[in-house]
């Protein structure tokens, strides 16, 4: 899937890559160790039996385990997760703080079974979202019937469309083109067809 | 009839009436696998539909039913109950007990579970099953948007299985607390029992809010209240549902995951690594799991601070699970690993859990969720956890314990083949979903220009490898049950107590009381204490009431669900009520006449619950779950009042004087009950009778006044359908009134027992806990609805 050069998409992708890097490293270490252990300690004829096999009905005690190792792993993971969370919070700031711009365009997005409606400041209503390139656009997402979810996957943005509630998204796309808009919450029979386009002109 | 021996009854009748934990375990096992097949076929239908773009194998309506019922059945009627099947069979065995603490309640749990599943699935033949997604998001569930009976039947089934789960929870918690073999301190319990213990604690916390939400939704759909079609409904449903929904993930995972350390250590011949670390991790994860539900709501528009808090807790919860996985793998170090089928499934489970868990960390990120929410990435993630880690873990349990349950060995070659094909098919099926990062969940079709065709085709191929591979399991079990080699008592050389008795174990589980106090197992025979006699009679503990009560509740809920559509509904409804009353009276009679007697087990390890007897401990746990139920109802009320600009002022609708009088009446009934208890302690039967009858009279008076109050309100056009002030008032105080009615039933039971002369002080005390609780709830409701 192509990444669009919008601020949200770039920010999302770099954060995803960060998570992916650590996930791959950790999975690599765990799986290597796991496979090594299974192969190394596999029973073969002549392998000596472990000396500490419990006997039937013996009370199991905690005589294996090392609390220090557990603490070290806890601390390492905590540092990693706090780092990832800090990066996430940075990303959220960018994704959610609408930049100050004198000419930002506010458009209402209304979900209904099974269509998206867009209402522009001058009162015009459309079923496709048409915005000028390079402009900051603020979307005010809501619904007039059931729970929908408004998403533009190419831009990596999404907001639930909930009756009686307005959720905000902002976007800025420099490349002219057409991007797909979909509904991401099951909203009835027509859910799959609740598709329209973002057209950047 | 309760005292006849089973060989006089037909085999089928024995299965219907049994209260033995092993029989009920087998019933759970067979039933849950049947639901697995049903939900699995639904999955194959969906995968067939999605194999190619613009397919017309299913239409949108059919697909939505399939996707909803697949989720509901897999989670509530397959995964969790298969875990309960093993817990039923092996928790008493592993702690050295002869049965669960309340055998009849155990049977009741099972029958409620079975009938609730039938209600949920009956939608398919009654005009369409639920089709709103298993998460039941409001307001799509409102009658206006989903008029068919499916959603109502689904909600009724969810309410019923919540009751089943709560009863089961009480049973397991009391069993683990009070029935451990002498010498088995908590720390000595096998890790499997620890995993079940934490599962039960989580169930106790998570299911009452679900029950509350289901009651509110049912009342919307049946009585016309407006909980989940008002402004704000979507958010309140999200909160209630996910407060249940996220712990539910661990509820599903832990019973399967708990089998893994057993299998790892037995097949590598080494004790589990870091038992205390694993237990501590479980405790931390259990605690954290009720603080992470917000990560399902990142894009609903809730405050940023709240989301960031949920982000942190969700990331942190990976740490205990990381420690558990590391301890699992470390268990193998230095062992002599036998790669038998149970171990292969256990290793597979760990492998897939690491992938499922890591992808879960991605989803904890508020920012990354902007893309993941509602896509196939999420579907891939939770199937790695729930199918990969959980089902593989449970399958490890099937192969591991099959010789114990049947006395025969399964076919090892077929077992290994089953693992190999399942593992390969699983990854072909679910891995492509991580790449469908922009494909919405629950769409019944997609266009060719989306580029999703190839990945979907691969996933479908995987599904048709993974799905049919399960036939190998069924064939293996079926064949080996009759023709497998004899297993003997301990085929794996295990050391937990289930291996110290024959395969299959006798009805009373052990040849005596397993005594571990010296550190070496031996069996104590207690002659002359009457215990051996009870032990021999143990298999005769048959009762017809659990199945009849469950049937009556099923009829009641069928009637309720069909009421708005069908006159026949009311007939079914009343039939349910009458049969239910008949069964409750029958159950009580068995107790009063002591037809069904559960002996006190001597020499039990009970720390830290030595002082509370079984029933009292059970009632305390029940009260805890009821507290959460009322918290759910009161929380919903408080939320709506908070966001509503126009709520009627106090005194305008509800008459404060009537409320005050009723409050005083109910408070007085608590005092009369205390009086009764005082008389019971000094063995003054007459005083006890008077106290109980007075309490009953006051409770009845409360209900009569309440009925008068309601009918006045209804006459003045304050009805179920007059908006949220009416909805919240009627359902919250109505649920309370239902508890008063249940309390009156309990009082009648106590009065009958007193007249029969066999009431125990403990029973009066235990009932008192419940009754005072019901009064305390009213002390909260009165100001909330009348004064504020």
Summarize the structure.
The complex is a heterodimer of chains A (201) and B (788). Helix content of chain A is 32%, strand content 26%.
What would your notes on this structure say?
The complex is a heterodimer of chains A (about 200) and B (about 800). Chain A is about 30% helix and about 25% strand. Chain A has about 200 residues and is α+β, with helices and mostly antiparallel strands. Chain A has two domains: about 70 residues, no CATH class; about 100 residues, Cupredoxins -  blue copper proteins (Immunoglobulin-like). Chain A has a five-stranded mixed beta sheet, with no helix packed on it. A five-stranded mixed beta sheet of chain A has the order 4-10-9-6-7, with no helix packed on it. In chain A, a hairpin with a 5-residue loop joins strand 2 and strand 3. Chain B has about 800 residues and is an all-alpha fold. Helix content of chain B is about 70%, strand content about 0%. Chain B has a two-stranded antiparallel ribbon with strand order 1-2. In chain B, a hairpin with a 6-residue loop joins strand 1 and strand 2. Chain B is globular. About 0% of the residues of chain B have low confidence. At the A-B interface, helix 1, helix 2 and strand 7 of A face helix 3, helix 7, helix 9, helix 10 and helix 11 of B.
CATH class of the largest domain in chain B: Mainly Alpha
Number of strands of chain B: 2
- Overall CATH architecture of the largest domain in chain A: Sandwich
CATH fold topology of the largest domain in chain B: Cytochrome C Oxidase, Chain A
Write down the secondary-structure element order of chain A. Answer: HHEEEEEEEEEE
Strand content of chain B: under 5%
Look at the structure and give the CATH class of the largest domain in chain A.
Mainly Beta
Put simply, the count of helices of chain A is 2
Q: Which sequence of strands runs across the widest sheet of chain B? A: 1-2
The end-to-end span of chain A amounts to: 22 Å
> If you average the pLDDT of chain A, what whole number results?
94
Shape of chain A: elongated
Q: Number of DSSP strands of chain A?
A: 10
Q: Taking strands numbered 1, 2, ... along the chain, how are they ordered across the largest sheet of chain A?
A: 3-2-1-5-8
